[in-house]
Design brief:
dTDP-4-dehydrorhamnose 3,5-epimerase activity, EC 5.1.3.13, dTDP-4-dehydrorhamnose 3,5-epimerase, RmlC_Cupin_sf, isomerase, binds dTDP-4-keto-6-deoxyglucose, Jelly Rolls, globular, single chain
Length: 181
């Protein structure tokens, strides 16, 4: 497993070791001991999520307020996405900064974002299936969104058409008007 730093120190890109052979491949998608040895951080995941989306879907930017803030370990097992983490920690020196990385079934890459980040992704393939672990349970009453195209964030989404959004995402406020952790 390789841990690759990103522009925001707490956001990590992970490349698992892939064991290929004539049958296909095997990889450990998460290993608690290896994670703690390599990142120096302990983490406990309590929920596994799985979403399927068609090309052009953009889900996000989502986060949960305290006490339900979620760290997320995201991977794409079918297709290809552009995955984004936005620092929404008010006292962070990188507040409002974002990290974007391509995750795909072919590159096996994973993106880790600790609690305090909004998360979203854009689907670049005909279909994408995204699996992600979270460090806190889903709490709808604490679920919040920031608009994906907030000019203050200026996320450089690799769009070639208007994205397909949920009603919640269509109505999301800019970060300046959002209720932040
Ligand atoms: C997130 C979640 C949703 N749900 C139910 C609630 C709704 O009836 C349905 C769809 O939920 P939603 O439209 O919020 O799903 P996404 O737009 O994919 O939301 C996710 O998108 C971004 C990318 C995230 O990082 C978050 O995990 C999450 O906000 O699943 C649950 O039962 N449990 C859950 O953990």
């Amino acid at each position: 497993m390789k841990i690759i730093p990103t522009e925001i120190p707490d956001v990590l890109l992970i490349e698992p070791q892939v064991f290929g052979d004539a049958r296909g491949f095997f990889l450990e998608s998460f290993n608690q001991r290896r994670w703690e040895d390599m990142t120096g951080q302990s983490v406990v995941f309590v929920q596994d999520n799985h979403s399927r989306s068609v090309r052009g879907v953009l889900r996000g930017l989502h986060y949960q307020l305290p006490p339900a803030e979620q760290g997320k370990l995201v991977r794409c097992v079918v297709g290809r996405i552009f995955d984004v983490a936005v620092d929404i920690r008010k006292n962070s020196p990188t507040f409002g900064r974002w990290v974007g990385r391509y995750l795909s079934a072919d590159n096996f890459r994973q993106l880790w974002m600790p609690p305090g980040f909004a998360h979203g992704f854009l689907v670049l393939s005909e279909r994408a299936e995204v699996l992600y672990k979270t460090t806190a349970y889903y709490a709808p009453e604490h679920d919040r969104a920031i608009r994906w195209d907030d000019p203050e964030l200026a996320i450089d989404w690799p769009l070639d058409a208007a994205p397909k959004l949920s009603e919640k995402d269509r109505l999301a406020p800019p970060i300046a008007e959002a209720e932040l952790p």
